[in-house]
Design brief:
Blueprint lengths: L1 H11 L6 H11 L4 H9 L3 H9 L5 E5 L5 E5 L8 E4 L2 E5 H13 L3 E12 L3 E12 L4 E5 L2 E4 L3 E2 L6 E2 L5 E8 L2 E8 L10 E2 L29 H4 L19 E3 L15 E2 L2 H6 L4 E4 L26 E2 L7 H5 L5 E2 L9 E5 L6 E5 L7 E2 L16 H6 L4 H34 L10 H30 L26
Parallel strand pairs: 10-13, 11-14
Antiparallel strand pairs: 1-2, 3-12, 4-8, 4-15, 5-6, 7-8, 9-16, 11-12, 16-17, 18-21, 19-20
The chain binds S-adenosylmethionine.
S-adenosylmethionine (SAM) binds next to strand 2 and strand 10.
Subcellular location: Chromosome; Nucleus
Keywords: Chromosome, Methyltransferase, Nucleus, S-adenosyl-L-methionine, Transferase
InterPro entries: Post-SET_dom, SET2_Histone-Lys_MeTrsfase, SET_dom, SET_dom_sf
Length: 494
């Protein structure tokens, strides 16, 4: 039981135990250590910190702009102050930022993008289509604080596609989450679904040479980042030891008042990507040419594209499900393409995995999958247990999968109900804060979230287990779980 809860909390909070704070999540679920749970959920900013950790983002959608490359739309109405998405990427030093920007610049202002679209079908057949497109060089390095930057050029969340506007509807804010500074995109004003998201790059810009701004705002400053310190200083970097932008001068929203003061990361590691990496989810990966080239799969289902030579930058695209595969997912929502000319994409998420998809406008319309109940907490693609169960010959396997599915559905319903309890308080509030949320309701919500994760895990585990060890008679979703190195009755290693 303890191990199960640890597994749940582990997947919930990023796949890696990281000191005491994350351990306490387990205790929190067990109803212990309320002091700490209060810190996570009860502090005014705790809810946002929680959403950072959980990668609980506002629904957004990629679209192709006129002349500004890709952009990101709000795919639901967003209240002013609401946390939209984290700006994820690689955390790099100013030295590294300087070097990288030189490399990126050397690759040229106008690049030829190789765009790829991949389809994987059961049986491991794998097709890919690619085409070339000319485009402006895009810059994805933003400043975190003095001497540290986030580079989303190769790895990042969908936030990397948010364009600049001189009259923005979003802003960046820096938060400490469990002692780490992270950058979030927040709504500056109420934003209607379908509106392009944009923030002012001025204080974030690390884009090198001048890029003419096409935002169209009356107060347009003509160039991206025209007022940025980097732009003004021409060399676009802060030197080591430059303390003009120290953490103290940056408004920080600290989720944990009694946590030790800001910990600077020691090494160059992916920043804000723990959760994504460990769960293989919601990564936008971009590969570059030559020795810099890095290929990473953006979801468990994505085939690596090692064999394909790329010229400069290519956006990895996640496979579209084959018709066979579609069948085992529930199909409640239709993907609606924007009515415009544009190429479009959709981002889907589920607690099991998330895919980032980019499809061409000329591609056939594709269904998207979401669970039966449209829920803030559990949107995205969901396996249809009944269909999956039918694929198994063994009655026992079928029953187990169906039972786990039922438990999962109950957990989803409870989660939905518990979120409904705290939703009004959150939505009423001017900013994305949790001042008004009753702590016990918040606790219930955390518990329900963990229970849902656990149920999801058990459901998928039941399927995998029955594929790997079809003869296993007694394991049910409530019983045996894999322990390290443990053998099952057939001697198969989990
Ligand atoms: C962080 S990326 C934004 C996503 C980008 N449009 C893409 O397709 O990947 C920043 C780049 O987008 C383009 N961009 C963003 N805002 C723009 C604007 N207002 N006018 C012109 N280009 C813009 C510039 O090429 C810039 O280097």
């Amino acid at each position: 039981m303890l191990m199960e809860i640890m597994l749940v909390a582990r997947s919930y909070f990023g796949g890696k135990w990281k000191g005491q704070s994350r351990m306490n999540v387990k205790q929190l679920v067990l109803g212990k250590n309320l002091g700490h749970s209060f810190k996570i959920m009860g502090s005014p900013q705790g809810y946002v910190a929680f959403r950072f950790q959980k990668s609980d983002y506002t629904k957004t959608k990629l679209f192709k702009t006129e002349g500004r490359g890709w952009g990101l739309l709000a795919d639901e109405n967003v209240k002013a102050g609401r946390f939209i998405i984290e700006y994820c990427g690689e955390l790099i030093s100013s030295e590294e930022a300087k070097q990288r920007s030189l490399v990126y610049e050397a690759q040229g202002r106008i690049l030829v993008y190789e765009k790829r679209f991949c389809i994987t079908i059961p049986g491991n057949q794998f097709f890919q289509f690619w085409w070339l497109e000319a485009g402006l060089k895009d810059a994805y390095i933003i400043s975190l604080y003095a001497n540290y930057f986030i580079d989303a050029t190769k790895k990042g969340s969908l936030a990397r596609f948010i364009n600049h506007s001189c009259q923005p509807n979003c802003e960046t804010r820096k938060w400490t989450v469990l002692g780490e500074v992270r950058v979030g995109i927040f709504a500056k004003q109420d934003i209607y679904a379908g509106t392009e998201l944009a923030y002012d790059y001025n204080f974030e810009w690390y884009g090198g040479a001048n890029v003419r701004c096409l935002c169209g705002a009356p107060n347009c400053s003509k160039f991206l980042g025209a007022k940025s310190p980097a732009f003004l200083e021409h060399n676009h970097v802060w030197e080591e030891g430059d303390d003009r932008y120290t953490v103290e001068e940056i408004p920080l929203y600290d989720s944990a008042e009694d946590e030790p003061s800001l910990k600077l990361p020691k090494d160059k590691r992916s920043f804000g990507l723990d959760f994504l990496d460990k769960n293989n989810i919601s990564m936008v990966t971009v590969d570059t040419v030559g020795p810099e080239r890095q290929l990473e799969s953006s979801a468990a289902v994505v085939e690596p594209l090692h064999s394909v030579p790329t010229e400069h930058v290519a956006i990895n695209m996640v496979k579209a499900e084959s018709s066979e595969e579609k069948k085992i997912y529930s199909q409640d929502t239709q993907n609606t393409f924007p009515p415009t000319n544009a190429t479009t994409s959709q981002f889907q998420s589920s607690s099991a995995f998330r895919n980032f998809q980019i499809g061409s406008g000329s591609l056939p319309k594709k269904k998207s999958f979401s669970i039966n109940k449209k829920s803030k907490n559990n949107g995205g693609k969901q396996l249809d247990g009944k269909r999956v169960a039918r694929l198994f010959a063994s009655k026992q396997a079928q029953e187990e999968i169906l039972k786990c599915e039922e438990i999962r559905n109950q957990a989803a319903t409870k989660l939905e109900a518990s979120y409904d309890e705290i939703r009004p308080a959150i939505e009423e509030h001017e900013r994305d804060s949790q001042d008004n949320v009753d702590i016990s309701a918040a606790m219930t919500w955390i518990g329900a979230s963990c229970a849902k994760m656990k149920a999801d895990f058990n459901f998928h585990f039941a399927i995998v287990k029955n594929v790997v060890c079809p003869q296993t008679p007694q394991n049910t979703c409530d019983e045996a779980k894999p322990s390290e190195g443990a053998d099952n009755e057939n001697g198969a290693k989990y």
